[in-house]
């Protein structure tokens, strides 16, 4: 029975092993989401699911609460240790991520427009009857804030870190922290891609490309140890993609949008009805995004290094020291 206990329990850290933490975390999120959904629908606060502010906020609460509980009970760490430690540099990273996402999507729009793959049909469309355009944008903005938070906390904050810890062997002879982080990034990004495989207009190509987007988003965590850059980039990429430039967002057609466009060009290049991330132009933008992230981290930190502590199970105190070092850089 000792071998079975070792398979399930890490006696050194006094917690379940990484695989079981991931499984129990998922079960916890499902249970909380189901409970909150049942309660709010019973009270008439939230309608049927879908890409809407109410549903997205409910999911964000479920993921945040579930990750906090899993962190305390399974991981033996605080929620902040999953990359949510606000500070001056954290907020600066968040703003940088927002700017990078907007710039990337703006670049895609300009390239497609100049190449003749887009036709602008109108401006400031999609608001409801008697509703101002600015008010109409509130719901999608809240939606994408919530989506960026819960998808990054789930995929990068919890999944990537626990996968890296589970893959990094104590003696480091078989797999050290660097290799563990690389493999954990690929695995978590693959799950991220599969999470979008059921979206409207999804395909094998779109699923692979969303996985590549997950790798790009992970770079912000790998190079800073925090989720600020991924959250900011994820938020502005989605919002500018759909509600500013009028593209579909992961297969979802947007309502209120600054530019009302009709799409032409080959879907393998533009992404077609799924959105730019499913096309070659999206891959180019991801590569550009990786370069912009690297430049920002290099300028603000003075170096570009892999945050190996993510795979080593560092404590709250270790993370606090790292945060102070980054702020003084």
Automatic annotation (TrEMBL):
Transmembrane residue ranges: 20-39, 51-69, 89-111, 132-150, 174-195, 202-223, 278-299
UniProtKB keywords: Hydrolase, Membrane, Protease, Transmembrane, Transmembrane helix
Coiled coil: none
GO biological processes: CAAX-box protein maturation; proteolysis
Keyword Nucleotide-binding included in the entry's annotation: no
Gene Ontology MF terms: endopeptidase activity
Highest rank taxon of the organism: Bacteria
Domain CAAX prenyl protease 2/Lysostaphin resistance protein A-like: 137-240
UniProt-listed Pfam families: Rce1-like
InterPro entries: Rce1/LyrA-like_dom
Protein name as it appears in the record: CAAX amino terminal protease self-immunity
Organism: Enhygromyxa salina
Organism lineage: Bacteria, Pseudomonadati, Myxococcota, Polyangia, Nannocystales
